[in-house]
Amino acid sequence: MTAAHLFKRYGRGRCGGPAACASYTVEASCVMAMVLLSLAMLIRTAYGRCRQETGIMKLHHTVEMLRCREDETDWDFSSGAWTGQAERDAGQVSGSAYGEDWKKEITVQLREPEQMMRMLTVFDGLTGRAETSEGAVAEGGDGDGGE
Length: 147
Fold this sequence. Notes:
By secondary structure, the chain is an alpha+beta fold. 58% of the residues lie in helices and 19% in strands. Strands 1-2-3-4 form a 4-stranded antiparallel β-sheet, covered by helices on one side.
């Protein structure tokens, strides 16, 4: 059968003919291929982003662990497609992690709890004096501590 014979038999505007159904099937298969390809790319991008965020969170965790430690240590870590390292210098902790197409660096100051304790004693001293003067005024005194 030739194309002219099929055209004459089924006609141009007939919806039920095999020629019309075949064209819709081909178009639907092209659209389905594009949809599946875009879904595959979306899933691959999501997994790549998940690996990147996991590496950055591991870097933050490692830097915070080194920040609170007393000893001078360096840590190297890796998982899958990314690697990282963190080191503690005098006064700061710096770390870096890098993967296939990304790199992140962090530098933070060391945690010094003794400095915080000194600051708290200053506030405690101010608060204690304020309570003492209020107590003296509440007892009927003139607030200067004298009789």
